[in-house]
Write a structure and sequence with these properties.
The structure is a homodimer. Chain A is an all-alpha fold. In chain A, helix 1 packs across helix 7. Chain A is elongated, with a radius of gyration of 19 Å. Chains A and B meet through helix 1, helix 7, helix 8, helix 9 and helix 10 of A and helix 1, helix 7, helix 8, helix 9 and helix 10 of B. The structure holds a DNA duplex.
Chain lengths: 204, 204
DNA sequence: ACATTGACACCGACCAGTTGGTATGTACCT
DNA sequence: AGGTACATACCAACTGGTCGGTGTCAATGT
């Protein structure tokens, strides 16, 4: 079989939760999307919440693979990798909204208070993704803005905030155009944060 | 009576939906928060969805009043108002998460696909808020960066994206600190977008 | 002054549909 | 034979929403 039932359920959970949120996603919706029944669902997951947490891990693993395979991530220059990341995120704003929005941001928004385990999982995978970016930012900062007051950690998290917010606006206006515009602003910001000339404020 | 039952229900709806999202918020949760019963709820609203839409309007009206009353909005200089807006948004990151996060962003995230009326309401009030900011940005741009390629509209929407994303990160990490850091980045960006000297690239 | 009326705001028991979860059966593989 | 991987049928709990009833208050009649 090309895809196991467990994977089908995880893919279905990712898709349905991205469309309707965690509470709005019924386990039968997920089963229908996967072409399976509730028996299969509860054979693979002990509860709906456990499925959501597994889906978060599945989503994060897919994202890791996607960004690892992206051309920008093999560029030799750290600054080019940072800007390439933003370009790549803009490039993948394709298709329907549930196909490019973030499962983690969607879930944590409604589950942060009532489902601690889901909040923790979302926090973990968002932070891990930010850390990958942070490594590039730190390297670029050392080269282009070593004395700047901002930290590479906060800059990496900021980029994730822009992305999450861009998804919300894209949902509100139902289309990816606003999100693309937001990423243009983010790219411009990174360009000024990492000026090509070198240090932004040479010591007096 | 200091507050009518209708207002109590709206305030309660705003609070509960901010905590648990739209689907996660049970109408009995809202009633309990308001100290009323389901009879009162369905006396004032014809459905849960209608209540959510009214709550969005209520939330937007409260926000309008808050920002109108804020000191920054009376500054004579447009650039100072734009930066003052960001500072003010940072300053109100106080208390528990449901007290400063955005009802509109929370609802549209899970309702954009299945509840068109809620999506439309959230889009409207987010856009109206952005338009208020856009006016100040446009004025500041005319003074400090008249030839820049970015539009005041996209810059205003970008600021909303940063805010929405900052709320998501704050929820994931359950605390407002990340959000404050994001607003620092946003302020720095606006400072470079609107350079004090005047035009950023004088024509050759 | 006082009883009558009726609109309004609200209560809380109730209903029908839905939900997450379970119990049981069965086809298949080793 | 026995365990794995599902399907089917089912249940108890809960959900949004309804409905008859009650307390309050102001207008009206006398």
């Amino acid at each position: 079989m090309a895809e196991t039932s467990g994977q089908k359920l995880l893919d279905a959970a990712v898709h349905v939760i991205r469309s309707k949120g965690y509470s709005g996603a019924r386990v039968e919706d997920i089963c229908a999307e996967a072409g399976l029944t509730k028996g299969a669902f509860f054979h693979h997951f002990e509860s709906k919440e456990a499925c959501a947490i597994a889906a978060a891990a599945h989503f994060a693993a897919n994202a890791d693979a996607l960004f690892d395979a992206a051309p920008y991530s093999h560029l030799p220059d750290a600054r080019a990798r940072v800007l390439g990341y933003v370009d790549f995120r803009k490039a993948i704003l394709q298709g329907e909204l549930p196909q490019f929005t973030c499962l983690l941001g969607t879930m944590v928004q409604e589950a942060y208070d009532s489902r601690p385990a889901i909040r923790a999982a979302c926090d973990r995978y968002i932070s891990e993704h930010a850390e990958r970016l942070e490594a590039d930012i730190a390297e670029a900062k050392a080269l282009h803005a070593p004395d700047a007051t901002w930290t590479s950690e906060s800059a990496a998290l900021y980029s994730q905030a822009v992305l999450q917010g861009a998804f919300i606006l894209a949902k509100a206006k139902h289309g990816p155009k606003v999100a693309a515009d937001c990423l243009d602003h983010l790219k411009r910001y990174f360009e000024t944060l990492l000026p090509i000339g070198g240090m932004e404020h040479p010591a007096p």
